[in-house]
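$ fold --in a.seq
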Amino acid sequence: MERALYGPGGFFLLPEGPAGHFRTSVHASPLFAGAVARLLVRTAEELGTDEVAFVDVGAGRGELLTGVLAALPAGLRVRPYGVERAARPAGLDPRITWTGRLPDGERGLLFANEWLDNVPVDVAQVDEAGAVRYVEVDRAGRERLGAVVAGADAEWLERWWPLTEPGERAEIGRTRDAAWATATASLAAGTAVAVDYAHTRPSRPPFGTLTAFRAGREVAPVPDGTCDLTAHVALDACAAASPGAELRTQREALRGLGVSGERPPLSLASTDPAGYVRALAAAGEAAELTAPGGLGDFLWLVRRVG
């Protein structure tokens, strides 16, 4: 998974970037970037400063960074960082520092939208005898069961994703826990947020979630570098790795940041027809971002630091 996503010729290094293959909340509507901009303003107010950092982890081609900078009010000074393994996109705002490493000791907002689901994981499966084994895969996507899971991986499964019946599968989330803990530790003070496809222990999927996307379509997860490899995140385990974090749905989080799917009053159509059309379009975009059964069910993991 590491090689297929981030190695030479890996998926996330392809020229078209992730947006050429799948759509996230960032691409769904500029309302998302506007909400993140308001969260950044709120973070600055909590820190009592007019100068903060905005760290976009898994920055793609800078779409969220660009949207947030455009939505910020005058007077707030921001040090923007795009943390991404791909090369710096052409034409990116020169204010943005593009880097493959987390900046250390910044004060502000760290935001990771659909990053943790692409942090590589091992997959485990219960064999016919009841033993939990690693799933091995070749470049063509052919699978076989390997060694018995033991040590820290077995302890993680026992605590966070117990497997009992033959055929049951899980993605071992220790790498995601460590990645999130490292990200939050990089902040001196402020707020860290991870937004992702996720599940918690009461509702783990019995056969795992590993899948792939190519050109907007879900495809078999073949680790050849031509498709996204992704698995939902056990965000409750990530939260435990960085104590003090809170979980909420995207619907709850965005509504708290002023994104509502409520339709404008019909009376506006007669007094300001163009304004009514704009407000109606915004309401439709907000409804998509907060819809139950869709983007609204994404989970936000929020951790205040310092």
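$ fold --in b.seq
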Amino acid sequence: MKANVLFAIGDLRYIDVDKPILKKNEVLVNVKAAGICGSDVPRVFTTGTYQFPTIIGHEFAGEIVDTFSSKDKKLIRKRVSVFPLLPCMECDNCKRADYETCDHYSYLGSRCNGGFAEYVAVPMWNLSFLPDSINIEDAAMLEPASVAFHALRRSGFKIGDSIAIVGPGTIGMIMSQLAYLAGAEKVFLIGRSQTKLDFAKNIGITEYVCNSVSDDVLQWISKNTNGKGVDVAIEGTGAEQSMDICINIVRTFGTVLVLGNPITDMNIKKNSYWKLLRKQLTLIGTWNSNFGTSKTDWLPVISLLQKKRLKLNSLITHRFPLVDLIKGLEIMKTGSEYFNKIMIIND
């Protein structure tokens, strides 16, 4: 089969490799669509994966074409999306069914082979079966959409709350939609790129957008919340400037939720730290999404897609064949043109 294999930092090759050999309770998925995550860019160009060689890619969907056990052959031709985290099932977190916080997890696309290939072996436990009404590109975005849903749930957001999302990337734009669906009074989207903000506004993500480079964010939030600040502020970039904005725009007794992967060490300014104390803010972390339990984030997102309430396809700005994965990665690395979600299609 063909696959995009990372042999070393900066050494990504589209080559022929052996098809996966299935283990007990695994199925073989023919990947039909796979999204490039922002985390894939440093994985390829700066940090690497946990071992080499690795087939990267963790946001994907496709069709089951084979099963380990003959008794599971009825699953062949079923369309699925895949939860990429592989929990150990033995640590204390797993025993509590908090699988996303597993102490000894593996992960498709970074710790073991993932979805930027024609085929991938997936444990049946990690499968989400797709209704016919959900197209395969939307299905490939179930992972980031579930991360966004999990984050919003973690924030304690309530109907009628105002929410500010700092970081107008794919997950930020998905979360903006989810916040409105959950009954937000106002959703503010804040970022440094006017192109991203204009894109969000043009496709109807929110009418409230603010450029943190050219505008006075604190004054803008104050004007639009009658001086009190937002109820929930979400840091979605992993940059200390964004964290500083969140602490300053949230109201007294408000919540700051930290979502973005850190770019480097995070430092909090003294004056902002004072506000964290004096406003008695709640600081919450979020990680991945819940799966495989009654608290799953995936089934509600699937339901929203099925009902056509959540719009993911409009976030896709580029589509490339499997052979051209590196082109999409280069666009994201260099910022040579505007992108939101870049989708790899394997016809």
